[in-house]
Every structure is written in C-alpha cells, then in structure tokens.
Write a structure and sequence with these properties.
Radius of gyration of chain A: 14 Å
Structural class of chain B: mainly beta
Number of strands of chain A: 11
Number of strands of chain B: 11
Distance between the termini of chain A: 40 Å
Largest interface: A-B, 24 and 25 residues
Radius of gyration of chain B: 13 Å
Number of helices of chain B: 0
Largest sheet of chain B: 7 strands, mixed
Helix content of chain A: under 10%
Order of helices and strands of chain A: EEEEEEEEEEE
Structural class of chain A: mainly beta
Number of helices of chain A: 0
Shape of chain A: globular
Strand content of chain B: over 45%
Strand content of chain A: over 45%
Largest sheet of chain A: 7 strands, mixed
Oligomer: heterodimer
Chain lengths: ~120, ~110
C-alpha cells in the first residue's frame, strides 16, 4: 500500500535552514506529485507548495517564495522540502502528501508529519 | 490567492444527530472545461495526520462511510454528516485545488457533546 515516511523531529535556531525528507513506497513515484502542508500550534493547515515528480516542476505559495525549495530524488522515491531563514513562527508539524492523478490532484495519502521547532 | 471561509469554527454535536459545515470560496471553483468543482474535504483526528474525506465536491475517498456527503456549487459548499459518531471528532478542512496555489479553510473543530 502507499506509504510516506518522513524524517524525524528537528530543533533549529532562528536564521538556520531545515530539510525534511519524505520517503515513498507502494506506487510509481514519478507518476504523481508531492505537496507539503504545515500545521503550526493553534493554527490550521497551511499549503506550502507542490512538486511534480516526473519533471520537478514546482509551485510555491507566495508566502514561502524565496525561502522554500522542494526537490525529489527519483532513484529513491524521496521528496525533500528545505525551508531557509527560519523564524520562530515556522515552528510547526510539516506534512508531505501524495497528490492524486491529474494536473491538480487531491492530497490522497499523507506522511506522519515532521515536527520542526525553531528556538534560540 | 483564493480565500476559503468555513463556518462554524466550533461544532458541538450530540451522537446520532446530523451536522453540517459550510465553506465558501472567494472565486468559483467550477472548472469550465470538465464541469467539475475542485473542492475537497479533509479531517484531522486527534493525534493523526490529516486524511482525505471527500474530493471533487462529492466523491467519498476510499473507506469513508456513507454518512459523509459533500454538496454545493460555484462558491458555496457543505459537508454533511448524517449521524455523527464519537469517532468523527476532529478538525475538518475544506480545500480548493482549482487554482495552482491550493488554499485551505480555517478548519472546523467537531466535538461531541
């Protein structure tokens, strides 16, 4: 079955960068996109962007433009999300999700989440 | 970006009673080519990752009980639970995916009375 397994919790200082990984299995990685969503304390879900696995086209939320980079490694079926210049309010659980078929698919299957804490 | 507005933000419900959540978008989510409405519903249950509940307005995801239904048109959408059960506790989100920058509603917290 489809599985997305994310990297573990991270603690970073303000101004640093974090790179979260999302290892997939159970489907043809190159056929579907991956999206990233975060959940900050006391907030709702926030869409960050997506990447198509077959040609690495990306679309980032305007809020994160210039600070986020999403990449994929087709050889291992792994997606990555790097967020730079971290601020305190980037503290959140970061989720990857497999997109459904088509140009703008649903978020069909989700990873378990990766907690990123930004603290001095 | 498209703004998604959910109401109510908190929804206490007695088990066995129906419940509904409203979601409004700042632009129509009707795709002129396919005729589909690209509006999904997700739920995040306590201690779990979010999961897909309903996609393309009204199609239940695999394994979702038929007491859940989605409806609406253009800019106004509704998630209905015909008879709430205790395991339905969680935060429900609508999300638009017609426009490349996906956007979520603020979330509605369903709790059992």
């Amino acid at each position: 079955q489809v599985q997305l397994v994310q990297s573990g919790a991270e603690v970073k200082k303000p101004g640093a960068s974090v790179k979260v990984s999302c290892k997939t299995s159970g489907y043809t990685f190159s056929s579907y996109g991956i999206t990233w969503v975060r959940l900050a304390p006391g907030q709702g879900l926030e869409w960050m962007g997506w990447i198509t696995a077959f040609n690495s086209n990306t679309n980032y939320a305007q809020k994160f433009q210039g600070r986020v980079t999403m990449t994929t490694d087709q050889s291992t079926g792994t997606a990555y999300m790097e967020l730079r210049s971290l601020k305190f309010d980037d503290t959140a659980i970061y989720y990857c999700a497999k997109l459904g078929p088509g140009a703008l698919g649903s978020l069909e299957s989700w990873g378990q989440g990766s907690l990123v804490t930004v603290s001095s | 970006d498209i703004v998604m507005t959910q109401t109510p933000l908190s929804l206490p419900v007695t088990p066995g009673e129906p419940a509904s959540i409203s979601c409004k978008s700042s632009q129509s989510l009707l795709h002129s080519g396919t005729g589909n409405i690209y509006l999904d519903w997700y739920v995040q249950k306590p201690g779990q990752s979010p999961q897909l509940l309903i996609f393309t307005l009204s199609i239940r995801a695999s394994g979702v009980p038929d007491r859940f239904s989605g409806s609406g048109s253009g800019t106004d959408f509704t998630l209905t639970i015909s008879r709430v059960e205790p395991e339905d506790v969680g935060v429900y989100y609508c999300m638009q995916r017609l426009f490349p920058a996906y956007t979520f509603g603020q979330g509605t917290k369903l709790e059992i009375k």
